[in-house]
Each structure stands twice: as C-alpha cells, then as structure tokens.
Specification:
Length: about 130
C-alpha cells in the first residue's frame, strides 16, 4: 500500500474515533456507503494490518486480538493488553474468526486495512 493511502486510512480511522459523528454515512475505499454509529466504543479489527492500526490509534476501543500476543511481546504492549481475547481474523487466508462468537461481543464497527478487491468487498458485505 502506498504511504499516502496508509496515511489516509489512518486519518480516516482516527477521525471515526475522535470526531463526533451522529449516524453519518461515509464512503469506504471500495465506494460502499457505510453508516457510522453515533458512538463508537467497540471496534473489531478484521485482519492483522487493521489490528496493528487499531492498537496504534485507539487501543482502548479494541475488542480483541487476531492472535493472542506472545509472552515476549507483552513488555512492549500496554498494561491489560494480555486480557483481550483472541477473536481470530475475518479476512485473508485462513479466516479463523467464529462469527457467532464475534456477534456476542457486539462490535460497533469492524475495520480493515490493506488490499481492496472483489473478494474483500464481498466479505465486507457479508
């Protein structure tokens, strides 16, 4: 992904968490119109790049990890990071998320970052 695109995605994600939004419609990078809830407090990352971006920009909103952090990584993470559950990944090869389990967490939004193609757009619509 080009640096300008990464910066745009990061700014858009940060704006979704910081700016007051009242059920606003926004267009995602695939052109789909998405309604963002009034208050976003529970965010599910769809894959590894989104997980890193979410942890970097708004770690307090993350519902969980794609994978449980390794013990050697914990000293570099915020306190309590090891308490977040491993929810699996929705995107990419080897999707490991259990959709029924994810629904019990009731995410306000699901974020993803990275490749945009017909496969990912179809997955996002599901």
């Amino acid at each position: 992904m080009m640096p300008a695109r990464r910066a745009f995605l990061a700014a858009a994600l940060l704006a979704a968490f910081v700016l007051p939004v009242h059920g606003a419609e926004v267009a995602d990078d695939s052109g789909r119109l998405i309604t963002v809830p009034d208050k976003v407090s529970k965010v599910l990352p769809a894959g590894p790049p989104a997980s890193v971006m979410l942890y970097t920009l708004a770690p307090d909103l993350a519902l969980g990890w794609i994978l449980v952090p390794r013990a050697q990584d914990l000293p570099f993470l915020l306190p309590g990071s090891d308490k977040l559950p491993a929810l699996g990944r929705l995107t990419g090869r080897g999707g490991t998320a259990n959709l029924e389990s994810i629904l019990t967490y009731q995410p306000d939004i699901i974020v993803d970052a990275g490749t945009i193609n017909d496969t990912y757009v179809s997955l996002a619509e599901k």
